[in-house]
Design brief:
Blueprint lengths: L1 E7 L7 E5 L3 H12 L5 E3 L5 E2 L10 E5 L14 H5 L5 E6 L2 E6 H5 L6 H6 L15 E3 L3 H13 L10 H12 L1
Parallel strand pairs: 1-5, 6-8
Antiparallel strand pairs: 1-2, 3-4, 3-5, 6-7
Protein name: BTB/POZ domain-containing protein KCTD9
Pfam families: BTB_2, KHA
GO molecular function: cullin family protein binding
Length: 177
């Protein structure tokens, strides 16, 4: 049995030693439970993405991210935002005039290939337009976005009564195509 030490991406404190068994998905589940984040990616100490559990050796030190890029815990000039990573990076979306507040990791973790993940994985890469309060503008119906955001938060699709399912599916396709 191999064991590794896991740290939240960008940090070198509060590590957790865990046994490596099963699949990479199993290890990500353990990392999620131990570190209190939604583990999506594992990196070695040099920032290499680990995509196969057989690449992990006994006593490796690994960094766990919620979908964000590797952040070197040794880099100089880190800010607290850099250290904490995306799981505390709050942002506000203005969807059709209604404000939704969530974390960057909520938008990028569950569906990493979605349009929302691409828009918000890294700050200001897409040049997203913002309103006067700094909320990111997305020209879609808030009634159809709310169940999508709840799915990203909790993994369940709950559609309110009165929602046209055909229109909802079109909205779903827009965000997750």
């Amino acid at each position: 049995m191999r064991r590794v030490t896991l740290f939240v991406n960008g940090t070198s404190r509060n590590g957790k030693v865990v046994a490596v068994y099963g699949t990479l998905s199993d290890l990500l589940t353990v990392a999620s439970n131990k570190l209190g984040i939604r583990a999506c990616n594992l990196y070695n100490g040099k920032g290499g993405l680990i995509d196969d559990i057989t690449l992990i050796r006994d006593d490796d030190v690994l960094y766990v991210s919620e979908g964000d890029a590797f952040i070197d815990p040794q880099s100089d000039g880190k800010t607290s935002d850099d250290i904490s990573g995306s799981h505390t990076d709050w942002l506000t979306l203005n969807i059709g005039g209604r404000l939704f507040t969530t974390t960057r990791s909520t938008l990028v973790s569950k569906e990493p290939d979605s349009m929302l993940a691409h828009m918000f994985r890294e700050k200001d890469v897409w040049g997203n337009k913002q309103d006067e309060r700094g909320a990111y503008l997305i020209d879609r119906s808030p009634e159809y976005f709310e169940p999508i955001l709840n799915y990203l938060r909790h993994g369940q699709i709950i559609v309110n009564e009165g929602i046209n399912l055909l229109v909802f599916m079109l909205a779903w396709c827009f965000f997750f195509k």
